[in-house]
Amino acid sequence: MPFSARTVSVAERQAKGVLDTSVVIDLPIIAEAVLPIQVAITAVTLAELSQGPHLATTPRERSIRLERLQVVEAVFSSPLPFDAAAARRYGSLVALVLEAGRAVRPRRIDLMIAATAAVHALPLFTRNAADFEGLQGALEIVAV
């Protein structure tokens, strides 16, 4: 079965959901109407954003990334943890990715975010739905 993430329409806006890092980065340019009413991020996304300023190659980019991190920390003060339940689910998602014939290594962080969303039974909103190919049935992926 070919993979396809569901694309949300304004009429079917969901009550709750997890935003992956790509959505958090692009929040200023994403229409609020395609996002869930109540949003959460994961501690893994916060970790990704925390590494950003250190990987920037110019002072300007570093300042942009640092400001984004500070805003995210202020707005999302209680990210969903990557805990023991998420770690176990991560293993299951790795198995699905391998079964789909895809490489796990470049997707590890994405899979940790997906595992956290799955454990909380929340859809995952992403700008990169193809990164989650092979996970159908394990969690709902919503392309924005």
Please tag this protein with its features.
144 residues, five-stranded parallel β-sheet, 5 helices, 5 strands, alpha/beta
How would you describe this protein?
There is one protein chain. With 144 residues, the protein is of the alpha/beta class. It is built from five helices and five strands, in the order ββαβααααββ. A five-stranded parallel sheet has the order 1-5-4-2-3. Strand 2 (16-19), helix 1 and strand 3 (38-40) form a beta-alpha-beta unit. Helix 2 (43-55) packs antiparallel against helix 3 and helix 4 packs across helix 5 (108-119). The radius of gyration is 15 Å and the shape is globular.
Briefly summarize what is shown:
With 144 residues, the chain is an alpha/beta fold. The chain has helices at 21-26, 43-55, 59-75, 84-99, 108-119; strands at 6-7, 16-19, 38-40, 124-126, 141-143. 44% of the residues lie in helices and 10% in strands.
Q: Can you tell me the number of structural domains?
A: 1
Distance between the termini: 22 Å
Query: What share of residues are in beta strands?
Result: 5-15%
Query: What is the C-alpha radius of gyration, as a whole number of Å?
Result: 15 Å
CATH superfamily: 5'-nuclease
The CATH level-2 architecture is identified as 3-Layer(aba) Sandwich
| Main beta sheet | 5 strands, parallel
Q: How many helices does DSSP assign?
A: 5
User: What is the third-level CATH name, the topology?
Assistant: Rossmann fold
Strand element count:
5
Coarse morphology = globular
Order of helical and strand elements: EEHEHHHHEE
Q: What is the share of helical residues? A: 40-55%
Structural class: alpha/beta
- The CATH class, by name, is Alpha Beta
pLDDT averaged residue by residue: 92
